Amino acid sequence: MGSEYDILEAVGAILTGVGLVILLTAGEAGLILGPVLLVMGLVVWKMGEMRREFNEKLESLREEIESLKTPGGTADG
């Protein structure tokens, strides 16, 4: 796991927190808006996590391709 977080993870965490606060503090309106924001926040958070993991794997593959190249700059396949 990397130490940097994707911006979507941060936005998702904030949306989740706001949805939880609304769910716990608001009255009847909070019973509708709270869970909606909570679910949206969790989905955005997971999207950011998956995008970060994908970028880490992509970078790892790029490094592996570079290590497989011959000194002449071509890859034998």
Topology as a string of helices (H) and strands (E): HH
- Can you summarize the main beta sheet? none
**Which value, in Å, is the CA radius of gyration?**
20 Å
Spatial gap, N to C terminus? 31 Å
Q: Give me the number of helical elements.
A: 2
Tally of strands: 0
Poorly predicted runs: none
> Structural class, from secondary structure content?
mainly alpha
Helix content: over 70%
Strand content bin: under 5%
**How would you sum up the global shape?**
rod-shaped
- Name the average pLDDT: 84
Task: Give an overview in words.
With 77 residues, the chain is mainly alpha-helical. It contains 2 helices and no strands. Helix 1 packs antiparallel against helix 2. The longest helix has 39 residues. The chain is rod-shaped.
Salient structural properties:
77 residues; single chain; mainly alpha
Topology overview:
Layout: H1 7-25, H2 30-68
Helix pairs in contact: 1-2
Q: What's a concise summary of this model?
A:
The protein has 77 residues and is an all-alpha fold. The chain has helices at residues 7-25, 30-68.
